[in-house]
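The material for today's practical consists of a large collection of protein records. Read left to right, the backbone structure tokens trace the chain's path through space. An example says more than a description, so a record of this kind follows:
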Amino acid sequence: MKGKICSLISVLFLTGCSDFLEERSQDEVRPSMVNDLEQILLGDGYQESNFYYATEIFTDNVESVGAQSAAEKSQHDKEKWLYMWRDNMFDEDGGGYDARFWEAPYSSILGCNLVLDYLDDMKGDDDMRESIRGEALTLRAWYYLHLVNFFGIAYNQGNPEVDLGVPLKLDATVTGDFFARNTVKEVYEQIEKDLLEGNRLLSTYEYKRNFFRIDHLAAKAILSRMYLYMENWDKALAYADSVLMVKPDLFDMNSISLSRPNSSTASVYSTETPDEIIWGREYDRGFEVPGASLPPFSISSDLGGLYVKGEWANLVGRTVEDLRALYFYWKIDIMGNRAWKRIGITKGKGDLGGFQGIRTAELYLNRAEAYAQKFIIEGNDTYREAALADLNTLRKNRFNKEFYKEIDVVDKEELLDYCLTERRRELCGETNHRWCDLRRYGKTVKHVLVESELQEFEQDMSLFALPIPEDVLKQNPNLKQN
């Protein structure tokens, strides 16, 4: 049976995601047991492509450093279109098709839909069935939350009732229809519906999972993130609370030996120290270019400057107050003009992993931001104190304890700005946080492209959304371009 299930998925995936939205024929052998569908969910509901790192190049966390080798130049010529925010970034006359943004999330949505379609027909344990249903609903919502923030205007920046989001496909049946784009509001309503039901099922039906799989805490955490994006501060707070009441732990970076900063435990996603992991999976590391000495785009000095004063590229022999400067980045030691560069963000297993997922740190930051916003709106000093308490709880686990001093901010806007800066320090490189934060607060980003001549580019992120890939538009005439 397992081979037949794999055959079914393979046939569906070979059509590509745009073909999935076109509705190709699908009369393959069906699974018969709940356990069979669990294998489909594990194999195809969980995305293997690291599209969570993909939007960093659009943000102020990345800068152009030029290209020297053939491999570097090849990567540079492909990615510069993204770095310049060009409308043709995914077209043949630009950077070319990139499966991470459209196809990868929709492929996993297809896996979730297959599971949801067939669950009621399967034999097996009913509690397991309902738990898997909750897992599939939560995963589907997770992917749609990313998709609508790739291709739709941020919920709070435009008019979600008319702004176009992405097509909602909620089953794996064949209709022969081409799907049009739903509005941002419609997509968010479906995300909310899936997450609420997913949370209920995962909370009600106990089924043993490790942190490599979505559970009820992950569903609550995603709800907190979704409501934060919608500026529903009370619900963002409530779901952050519901997670932190059960799992309040943070990984204390002071527990790492400073003489072994690249050890496997020097990580917020290490399986050896899973203090704050709610859900996490290992992916390919961002910015790595096979055959290249250094990638043509790497961590910006602007981001690095948030951790240390002065030049941050070489921290050897220096006392560092914010330990994230040591443990959040992978580095390379190159003899010559570009010696000792910190070039990529890594949160998992020292220098070796590229873990992505959801951590308790995000919930502290969600809650701090919501409290800061309520302080701005209502002027109640209790909210200011609560926001500062969450920020300080996080920071004391990140700073060298010999130097740490608690922050105390009185001004309303300064407090909110501190929350956003702390989000950038802590969540850089993870699940598209910085991309979403820049867009929902309407920040402007400046990029300088290093080629034969320096070129400067600027982008107002408030109403910016990614263009739908040219190949996808050709496959589906009902899709309207941004």
